[in-house]
Write a structure and sequence with these properties.
Glycerol-3-phosphate (1)-acyltransferase, seven-stranded mixed beta sheet, 18% strand
Length: 233
């Protein structure tokens, strides 16, 4: 019975996301409100208990940079930061339902092997920040439990070029490996397994916003800061 319940719950996430997509087509709907409502609903379905540490800046034209463990990071940031949008790998745009949802919230998609795509992404990020948007970038470029590889410095270069500030964040989960989406994890199976858990605990910590004075050094500094989270469990 528990297995059937987990299956129904995981299918319910797709159905709920689709319903929000349909709501967003209504000209009178507020996409920003729908984004936060969706995140609240999905995290509630997963029985995820979220702790927010530090103060989320409500400044406009702000870049958020932090570690990337799971697709759950997206819902957590949507729940925590009003008006946030994302930079993500292009493959996500083709995901069933969630790809359309990512497009709806103005995600900037990047083909990592394509230099023209990266240039286009930088231009789109600049334009979004110029409009006053808040943009989240995961400098690792992929999900991982520990930040063993150096971060990519592109986000820090963008912030430095136009004097945008960044707000670093770091996320951790308990149980960590169960929540992490890494290695050969397959999305439908992974989501199903999350609903088999009694509950999930997550903490997102925000550092105060800072200026970028040296993109390479600041990239290294905040990568080290993000590494100081709980060890795998």
């Amino acid at each position: 019975m528990k297995a059937l319940s987990s299956l129904n719950d995981s299918m319910g996430v797709f159905a709920q996301t689709y319903r929000y997509l349909q709501k967003s087509k209504d000209p009178s709907s507020c996409v920003e409100e729908l984004k936060q409502q969706w995140a609240h609903d999905i995290l509630g379905r997963l029985r995820l208990k979220l702790q927010v540490v530090g103060e989320v800046s409500l400044d406009k034209s702000l870049l958020y940079v932090g570690n990337h463990i799971s697709y759950l990071d997206i819902a957590i940031l949507l729940r925590s930061v009003p008006g946030i949008s994302f930079v993500a790998k292009h493959e996500i745009s083709s995901w069933p339902v969630f790809g359309k949802a990512a497009q709806k919230i103005e995600t900037v998609f990047v083909k990592r092997e394509n230099g023209d795509s990266r240039k286009s992404a930088r231009k789109s990020i600049h334009e979004a920040l110029d409009r006053g948007q808040r943009v989240a970038i995961f400098p690792s470029g992929t999900t991982c439990i520990t930040e063993k590889k150096p971060w990519k410095k592109g986000a820090f270069e963008i912030a430095h070029e136009q004097n945008y500030r960044i707000q670093p964040f770091r996320i951790t989960y308990n149980p960590l490996r169960a929540a992490a989406y890494i290695d050969q994890d397959f999305f439908p199976v992974h989501l199903y397994s999350l609903f088999a858990l009694e509950n999930i605990e997550a903490t997102i910590e925000f550092h105060e916003p800072v200026n970028v004075t040296n993109p390479l050094e600041d990239c290294r500094r905040w990568c080290e800061w993000a590494r100081k989270v709980s060890s795998p469990a």
